[in-house]
Design a protein that fits this description.
The chain is an alpha+beta fold. It has 7 helices and 15 strands.
């Protein structure tokens, strides 16, 4: 459907889905239903699907980067995560699937798998600039940030997959509890399995008590970014 005509489904506040989002989710849910008919699916477009009380829950974001997709940009991802287990982030245009079975992390490309090895050597940090409680622009204003890192803005879960694969040094975003988010769960799982350092923006574990996300290739990079975030937040108070 890419590059063609599709319907837009308004969600309010400038957000929308397309008929491609809906069709992709239907295709993913059909695969899950065929293999695990008793599981619950939480989809970005279809909401909760399945019986209450099911032990296994899938989180599906069929098209992460709808705004990019709608204007013909190829920076999009497909996210599927089994809560507490396996997960995958697919780049449909590069034909790469970054995945974890719950223990190891790898990327499948041209039918072959390669282990994901995070590294901060690029110095590139993706920063989500959506206005929330923490202003990412404040981080960019920190003198230590521009000395050590270079900012990028990707705005899809590919950013997390790229941290896990060594293409980015880190990713920073604000928000609430992202552990059960259809947008972030798959990327967080892949980063963790690859050995990245992953916390909320306050340094707390991702979960009901934390908010936002800092995913870094290594503890040093994570520590540097956390220091800058705390410094800028202190200045803003």
């Amino acid at each position: 459907m890419f590059g063609g005509r599709f319907d837009r489904i308004d969600k309010g506040a400038g957000d929308f889905a397309t008929s491609a989002d809906v069709a992709a989710e239907e295709a993913i849910v059909a695969v899950i239903r065929a293999a695990r008919p008793g599981d619950v699916v939480l989809g970005e477009e279809g909401g909760w699907q399945g019986a209450d009380g099911a032990q296994r829950q899938w989180l599906v974001d069929p098209l992460c980067g709808t705004l990019n997709y709608a204007v013909g940009s190829r920076l999009v991802a497909v996210n599927v995560a089994l809560r507490g287990g396996a997960a995958a982030v697919a780049d449909p245009f590069s034909d790469e699937v970054f995945y974890t079975d719950g223990e190891r992390a790898a990327v499948r490309r041209d039918g072959a798998d390669a282990q994901l090895v995070p590294t901060a050597v690029s110095g590139l940090v993706d920063v989500n600039l959506d206005p929330r409680g923490f202003r990412a622009v404040d981080l960019l204003d920190h003198p230590g940030f521009v000395e050590r890192f270079r900012p990028r803005v990707l705005s899809t879960t590919l950013a997390l997959a790229w941290v896990a694969s060594g293409r980015r040094a880190a990713y920073v975003t604000d928000g609430g509890d992202l552990s059960g988010s259809v947008h972030f769960a798959a990327g967080i799982a892949v980063c963790r399995a690859a050995g990245c350092t992953v916390t909320g923006i306050d340094g707390a574990p991702i979960g009901s008590g934390g908010r936002g996300l800092v995913a870094a290739a290594d503890p040093e990079t994570h520590g540097l970014l956390m220091g800058m975030i705390q410094s800028q937040r202190s200045r803003a108070v």
